[in-house]
Amino acid sequence: MPYRTIIEPFRIHSVQGISFPTTEEREAALVRAGYNLFGLHADEVIIDLLTDSGTGSMSAEQWAAMMVGDESYAGSRSFYRFADAVTKLTGLPEVIPVHQGRAAEWILFSSVAGPGKVIPNNTHFDTTRANVEFQGAEARDMVIAEGRDPAADHPFKGNMDVTALRATIAEVGVGNIPLVMITVTNNSGGGQPVSLANLREVRAVCDEHGLPFFMDAARFAENAWFIKLREPGQAERTPRQIAREMFSLVDGVTFSAKKDAIANIGGFLAMKDPALAAQCRNLLILTEGFPTYGGLAGRDLEAIATGLDEVLEEGYLRYRIRSTEYLGEKCRDAGVPIVWPPGGHAVYIDAKAMLPHIPPARYPAQALAVELYREGGVRGVEIGSVMFGKPGDDGTETPAAMELVRLAVPRRTYTQSHIDYVGEVVVAVAKKAPSLRGYRITESAPWLRHFTARFEPI
């Protein structure tokens, strides 16, 4: 259609009320939570853009599918429908259900990683990195240079630097790389896509050295849509055709169904190697449950199977990507520095550029995220040195490569007026950026500290 107005490709069938805490109530909530937005109660948030994981709205078809869920402990009918949907989409025969994506990561890296091992990735996200490092291995990022520059205008800023991959293989040796991984879309780098050409290049390097190639496919459909829009020769293909080619290039996937299956819980680990799958199933039984439910109810398996089909509908993907782009354009047009072009699931504000007076050691992205909530009740998340900084034994800290605030848009949940409101809050905070000050950490955990750390303003 030639019109620019975003039309949601659905009718709203049920609604849930939003709370409107006052400025005073928001300030009190910040103090109680130690200025960590993860510590807020959901009822203290007006627009919740903390994550797009499990926060989407399921369709009538998904809810209907849940009503026929088979809750048998072993051999559930719902599992076989789920496994069939996964294999038809990915071509991977070994399907292992888990309660969410990080469980798939834990099982996979517990099986293949260990001290002295190196896992290359375009960019590891937080739980992926933590699960690799918890096993004593090194999580090594090697996204292309444009992917480390928020302002660089490149169609596939999530691409892996193949030269760096080759150099890593030469440096550490094939025997110390249990697998190569790529994240689509690249969450830590601004939700940026990976091209089919890059996937083919990485596949060729893996074949040359006999290395397994795995994909974190949580946002595979969004990545497929970007390929359709941006990669030469792909415009006439359907998202489903593109997705199937993406999956055909890898030996296995980890998958959070809370993203591009539009379910509220769930995930899977799928692969070609039956021996590795058997090893992973042993860990699954130990930690998640029997292999035909993997920590999920039958109704959840049904919802995921339906969502994997719905997410590839062109009308949905057109609306999904354009909605995020709309928010990005509102920010950019107001002079707010963001990762450009906008990612698929979120707009990432460049806090380093907006708050150059706050050094990384004082967490500028955390300061910006707190102020967005203080100003308008909008909850985003810091993707910077709180999440990815590396504390040293001497009390210093190696900062993250970028200082970003992610505004992750839940699927089928907010309307255009909600997004317009978010844009207004961002612009209001940008106008007072010079007056913002940094934070220091007063309490933190050794792993994934951003979830539970407490802060105080400086």
What does this structure look like?
It is a single chain. With 458 residues, the chain is α/β, with parallel strands linked by helices. The protein folds into 2 domains: 23-52 and 315-457, Aspartate Aminotransferase, domain 1 (Alpha-Beta Complex); 60-310, Type I PLP-dependent aspartate aminotransferase-like (Major domain) (Aspartate Aminotransferase, domain 2, 3-Layer(aba) Sandwich). 40% of the residues lie in helices and 13% in strands. The protein contains 16 helices and 16 strands. The chain has helices at 23-32, 60-66, 77-90, 101-112, 126-134, 162-172, 196-209, 220-230, 239-248, 274-287, 298-310, 314-333, 351-354, 364-376, 385-388, 416-431, and strands spanning 47-48, 94-98, 118-121, 138-141, 180-183, 213-216, 252-256, 267-271, 346-350, 378-379, 381-383, 390-391, 397-398, 404-408, 439-443, 454-457. The radius of gyration is 21 Å and the shape is globular.
Give the key terms.
458 residues; alpha/beta; Aspartate Aminotransferase, domain 1; Aspartate Aminotransferase, domain 2; 2 domains; 3-stranded antiparallel beta sheet; 16 strands
